[in-house]
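Give me structure tokens for this 202-residue protein.
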Amino acid sequence: LHAGVDFSQQPNIEESGWQAIFNGKDLNGWSQKNGKATYSVEDGAVVGRTAKGSPNSFMCSQRDYGDFELTFEVKVDVGLNSGVQIRSKSLADKDNGRVHGPQVEIETSPAEAGYVYGEATGRGWLSPHQPPTKAMKNDDWNRFVIRAVGPRIQTWINGQKIEDISDPDSYQSGFIGLQVHGVGDKGPFEVRWRDIRIHEIK
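Here you go.
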């Protein structure tokens, strides 16, 4: 079906064919959708900071991706959950452009990081089970690897396999989005991403 994709293994992020989609200097190629959280670039990382009373905010890739492998490192404050949207959309005629689609959860341990949630889809968790794991190292950088090919979505955190689902009901193409979750009147909290790279599968 997809020659060269070994679904039994985590993608090798050291191989050739990976492209940086964040340049480490500015947010060229990205645009914010929804919310009032702020995004900046500091020390080679995208820094998302919560804003009181803001709904969920997303910094989104300006182009869409279909079948791909994605990797990044992320560090999140205890008390904030976050996520990365994959194959997501923002449509004028759906909830006034509310970002929606599959989200790979980011959350400090022990938690549901790495499972897949249907952000603003009305479907709740796309992962049928989300037993909390300790895959995330709190107060440290964590390496995520995600593979989305056809309806299949696989995730790994720090080399530990977390999820492998088939979700034919989700979009098969869309943007990547870096989420800062709404926190009401709490915070401020920060989440940082760096080394965001993608390997497109044709």
